[in-house]
Task: structure prediction
Amino acid sequence: MKKLINRPEDAVAEALMGVAAAHADRVRVHIGPNYIVRADAPVRGKVAIVSGGGSGHEPMHGGFVGMGMLDAACPGEVFTSPTPDQMLAASQAVDGGAGVLHIVKNYTGDVMNFEMAAELAQDEGMEVEQVVIDDDVAVKDSLYTAGRRGVGATVLAEKICGAAAELRRPLAEVAGLCRKVNANARSMGVALTSCTVPMAGRPTFALGDDEIELGVGIHGEPGRERRKLASAHDIVEALATAVVDDLPFGPGDKVLAFVNGMGGTPLLELYVVYGELHELLEGRGISITRNLIGSYITSLDMAGCSITLLRLDDELTALWDAPVSTTGLRWGV
Amino acid sequence: MKKLINRPEDAVAEALMGVAAAHADRVRVHIGPNYIVRADAPVRGKVAIVSGGGSGHEPMHGGFVGMGMLDAACPGEVFTSPTPDQMLAASQAVDGGAGVLHIVKNYTGDVMNFEMAAELAQDEGMEVEQVVIDDDVAVKDSLYTAGRRGVGATVLAEKICGAAAELRRPLAEVAGLCRKVNANARSMGVALTSCTVPMAGRPTFALGDDEIELGVGIHGEPGRERRKLASAHDIVEALATAVVDDLPFGPGDKVLAFVNGMGGTPLLELYVVYGELHELLEGRGISITRNLIGSYITSLDMAGCSITLLRLDDELTALWDAPVSTTGLRWGV
Result:
């Protein structure tokens, strides 16, 4: 295993110390329990948005803390759910009196721990809503999941709900928007290589030199099928067809197309993928009116990509375009 | 070789088509000769800034085209200099009548071709200045270079000169700033793995499972020494000490610290590196007053990182903070 770390068991905490040293102007990092909040938290009268999950998916979620997106992120150990006490402490730190929305990726540990955290917070009189994101069309009932996994739509939901919260929309509305994003988004990913969890020290799964895992999960969970390595054209066709046919997206739809790198894939390749996706969607009468291309929800050093499509209307488009100021996404400020 | 591409010989052109499809609101992509210009080029009365080099280092340079940074980028084939006709055509497309600055990384092919392009442009009556960036302290007279290689300081120079050009500073001043950035910046990188050039189809160099290349070049050129894999602490100490001692940076200096991923290294590790760098510089009395952390000048899928330090004064700090709107760097707008 080759990684720029010290002791594997210290990697997450040391990365958090790096975030604290780098971005003290934007975020506060709390160690024990671990969470990241925006520097101006709590923002009075604003719905607070909290997310979290295992580490190893950076910039998600810590890189999305800031004006226009998350109020707090709870990083667990690598590929391990954060604990209820992290989520509770983070929620308390950002609650501005207008309630807290928990955006939860659909993995069994995350869902269970966020539910416990919500109960504890509600016991303290906090108003909490939770939305579970489950946009991955690849498989149902995966290694760590009942139902579908939550992947790329989480980034989009965090951005859009964050914008709505800045506009002082009430909790029920912000939660409703989160459900709307989830209902209108679908994703699927592919791995060209495995990732290596620092504490494990060896690749999570074995993949032949000429094989790819189609529909892979962001922790290296098995996908739909193992195939022979194929061209970008054929891989995009497989991913995008599965995504488009699932919702389904159809002629006349306007979409946000999100081409996401898994961590070990260079930008050059993501643009080749985007070009293929653009052509395929055009052929099916679907217009890309917004896009996001880069590595935003990653799987450590895994090579591969995922495609997420979100059907846009005027409301979602305006919220997507609204200013955001985080280390991972930034515009308008 | 596992890559999200179609035919290796088409990868650069197809990635450019992806850029054109994705970012038509910000840039225009010209194919044959290949170059990317900002959508509003030429900007009348503004010094135009043109850079370029081999592809495979994305987002550099194409991702830095836009308000506050580059007017044009010329992408060559992977790790291959663009040609003088690309540079000439790009310069013509962005010349707003106030002259053109070519920012050139110090590689023999790039320097030669940019010199030819400048001569051709001057023959047409264009005012052209060129600045060669050579900030890599690792080695002199490398595989493709006479003198030192140009690496991370290029990103910083493009941002700072871009801001000065937006303020309508004259060509000589913008070129002077570029020289000032180069004079005050030093870099060094490390590879944990090789990269694989699509057309070659196999790793550029061989590196044992327990080895790293200290001082590696961005095309996989040999560095200072091959070492056993070490902790992030020890690797940062080796890189940062070489960088600090070279200028030298000293107590009381304010610096911009740039921790750059080589393409295959996840953000989690870059933050571990940043934490180590922060501690080391603090111990030497050097204050980090600005930072940049992410994969901005890459080497395809190489795992590794580089550290660049730039000594800041008030002028450079203000220009760094000025608004920028590119797909690779964006703030203030």
